[in-house]
Description:
This is DUF433 domain-containing protein. It holds the Pfam family DUF433. It is a single chain. The protein is mainly α and 97 residues long. It has one domain (11-87). It is built from 4 helices and no strands. The longest helix is centred in the last third of the chain and has 22 residues, at 68-89. It is globular, with a radius of gyration of 17 Å. The model has no long low-confidence stretch (mean pLDDT 87).
Amino acid sequence: MATTQYRIVAGTDSDIHDEPHLPESRLTVREIHAHVDERGLRPETIADRFNLDIADVYEALAYYHSNPEEMRAAEQRYERANAVASERSSMTPPNDV
Length: 97
């Protein structure tokens, strides 16, 4: 069986993300998947909105579905980072008022 070659930049090879993303873009594979598979936007819409080639959108989706463990780990890191950021930014009143 042939191995698929992707142009996706791995998180370990990136200077801007710790997760897979499109080359020369800050848009991650996880974000593209969320827009298309979770929010129901069409790949053409994502390509237009982010000034991408439609092939890049489909490549990101193929990468997402071909690498489930890697993408699950990226999603877990993202959720943990969001939880930490939420805790740090939530304001609570002082207890002695």
